Amino acid sequence: MTVRALNGLKMDQTGVARAGVTAADSATLTDANIPPAQAIDCRGLDTIYVGVEFTGGTGPTATFEILYRDPVVGTNTTPADGARWKRKLLGAPNGVTTIAAPAAQTTGALDGTALSEQRVDGRSQVFIRCTNVTGSPTSFDILVMPGARRYSDNWNE
């Protein structure tokens, strides 16, 4: 399996993670719906910036979440399809009551004018999943830019 590396991008460069996307991605997290070949390698990075460029539409927006591929789950070395892609459920953000239920990390609705910083924690297989699209764009490109560098990939440091 080929995973595209972000390490070819300089810290101030934006690249295209996926081009010509026409709709939100499936909510069913199988390899058929979330192709591993479209994953990006974020080793060496704590965060990435995610953005979007639209073609057509009326005031289009798109929302994204970060998925992580885990080829090994527990002691099972070959997890069943549907058990490989994970999302992180993060606790309540600052300023929100601490009893709020954990929620999937998303970018919020992006309209093409901003980049959203997203945690990737140095993972080697990251997929930027589109969860929602509004405004009927003809297509859109998902953009990515390196964010904060990871100080260490060693759990003991």
Low-confidence stretches: none
> According to CATH, what is the topology?
Jelly Rolls
For the sheet with most strands, the description reads: 4 strands, antiparallel
Q: Strands across the major sheet, in which order? A: 2-11-4-9
CATH class designation: Mainly Beta
Q: How many H/I helices? A: 0
> What is the rounded Rg?
16 Å
Count of domain modules? 1
Describe the protein.
- The chain has 157 residues and is mainly beta.
- The protein has one domain: Sandwich (Jelly Rolls).
- The chain has no helices and 11 strands.
- The chain has strands at 4-5, 15-21, 40-41, 47-55, 61-69, 85-87, 89-90, 103-104, 116-119, 126-134, 139-146.
- The protein has a 4-stranded antiparallel sheet, with no helix packed on it. Strands 6-5-10 form a 3-stranded antiparallel sheet, with no helix packed on it.
Write the layout of secondary structure elements.
Blueprint: E1 4-5, E2 15-21, E3 40-41, E4 47-55, E5 61-69, E6 85-87, E7 89-90, E8 103-104, E9 116-119, E10 126-134, E11 139-146
Brief description of this entry?
With 157 residues, this protein is mainly β. The protein has strands at residues 4-5, 15-21, 40-41, 47-55, 61-69, 85-87, 89-90, 103-104, 116-119, 126-134, 139-146. It has a single domain (4-146), classed as Jelly Rolls (Sandwich).
